Amino acid sequence: MSNGNIFISYRRDDTSGHAGRIYDRLKDRFPGRVVMDVTSIDLGEDFVEEIERQLGTSLVFIELIGREWATIADQAGRRRLDHPNDFVRLEVAIALRRAITFIPVLVEGASMPDGSSLPEDIAPLTRHNALTITESDFDHDVERLIHKLETVFGGPGGFVPPRSSVFPPRKRHPARVALLIVIGVVVLFVVGLIGLFVLSFIIGLYADTSGNANVTNSNGDNKTSSTINRPANAEVYVNQITMNKDNGGEPGESTTKFEPGDRTIHCVVQLNTAREGTQVKFVWKSANGETTTVDYTTKSSENEVHSHLTRTSDWPNGKSRVAVYINGVLDKKIEYIIE
């Protein structure tokens, strides 16, 4: 199940720009597995056999469809898809015959072509559910494509190297935000009534209790301080950092204790302010010394960012940690335990 490639098919006059960007993202997540169409065929070789050879090693076929995919014509005015030896037509037809995972990807505002307007051998592509990738939400849309590919390569007996990604912030519903504000005001009021003595006791207990999030400075000492190497005049910094279990692809319960069989682990960071262009780097270091780095640049109005690692085999037992850098400066670390 794990041995197979991802074949990207596209028409250069239609979607070459998107093809290059998507190819770069996929090759980073699936190194050595992404094939960008049949780029060269030696003289004397049968190009149909070469396409079949390339697709014979593929588990997934991605067809990029732009606004002119079905209508582009040659110099004589004949539609290219009507040529039996058109490369795109051949690639689509062979992929459909092989019954591999077939994913149409719509870009540049394109819609799925009408099956009746396509040659008979490629008309079945319209029966496959398509993914739309927009320019305004390109990162999120490509993550959806990657998630689908991981389900293909991460099946029983398969292996996918741990992958990391950063999702855009989750959408907040106005009613839920209002409820959270009310709860926050009530909590602050109760804390004020308890008094400074009880509040100090709780802070001390939190700092000394095992199993809670440990934020460490660069010397490795356990502290609750949010400052590590942060400049005194830093405009953007981490207000809060948590580790979370997975809940259907989103961060769930906050905890620092995970089991080896927990397939996905999340790290959620709350920034003090939303400032477009903030560079956020997550450096994951597992108990066995493996390190994974994730870089992300915030958009406007983003002050929550989360990263996650996914693994199809068990995590190594022991202490692991995530270090968060803001604009190149180490800001916070948090430890978690696999046991």
CATH class membership of the largest domain: Alpha Beta
What is the straight-line distance between the termini? Answer: 29 Å
Determine the fraction of residues in helical runs and give it as a percent range.
25-40%
The proportion of strand residues reads: 25-35%
Structural class from helices and strands?
alpha/beta
For the biggest sheet, the summary is:
5 strands, parallel
Number of helices: 6
**Can you tell me the number of structural domains?**
2
Which residues form runs of ≥5 with pLDDT under 50? Answer: 155-170, 204-225
Tell me the number of strands: 17
Strand line-up across the major sheet: 2-1-3-4-5
CATH superfamily of the largest domain: Toll/interleukin-1 receptor homology (TIR) domain
Mean pLDDT: 81
Shape: elongated
- Which series of helices and strands comes N to C? EHEHEHEEHEHHEEEEEEEEEEE
What is the CATH architecture annotation of the largest domain? 3-Layer(aba) Sandwich
Radius of gyration: 25 Å
Which topology of the largest domain does CATH recognise? Rossmann fold
What kind of assembly state do the chains in view correspond to? single chain
